[in-house]
User: What shape does this take?
Amino acid sequence: MAQMEGNTQPESASQQPYVFKVVLLGSSSVGKSSLAFRLIKNDFKEILPTLGCAFFTQMMEIDGSALKLEIWDTAGQEKYHSVCHLYFRGANAAVLVYDIADKDSFRRAQNWWKELENEFQPEEIVVILVGNKTDLEASREVTLEEGKAFAESKKLLFMETSAKLNYQVTEAFIAVARELLRREEENGG
Ligand code: GDP
Assistant: This one.
């Protein structure tokens, strides 16, 4: 059973937590900051304050293992259709976000995937494709099947979310954390 533990050390996990760097990627306005804000503060703001920093930490406990996710937000760098190499450096996971009501953001997510492919070997990084804003179903431009098909073709995790309605946000990060742990254990962690 997975548990979210705010920013505090989970009591039951006595060992040092695993620390993983998770980068958020995707075009502007798809909801990257809102997803991070929802995960960390369990809140949603129509107009997000400038968060001032592009780095958050979130503790989790999964099946008795403590994890610390260091979540990096692009802080607007994606407007230039790229991010600096430092952003990628040492990343263990990427959350690749598009807006289900914006076909262009889905196309751009595929371009971001190519950037990831250039930077990492597949076994080096866990990637989840996230179709955000499911509350905008009436204006949907990317079907669930299209999202799934792309994710399957590239062997990515996949989830649709709504940061606004708090739909599957925690679940998406838990899926990433589980896969990170699974790989860590597979490698003798
Ligand atoms: P970022 O540029 O990718 O970090 O996107 P933001 O998190 O700043 O969000 C861009 C806009 O989309 C803001 O107006 C948010 O309020 C809105 N937004 C984010 N997530 C959702 C969602 O799940 N549903 C809806 N309807 N709007 C969202």
In short: Strands lie at 2-4, 18-25, 55-62, 65-72, 93-99, 126-132, 157-160. The chain has five helices and seven strands. The first helix runs from residue 32 to 41.
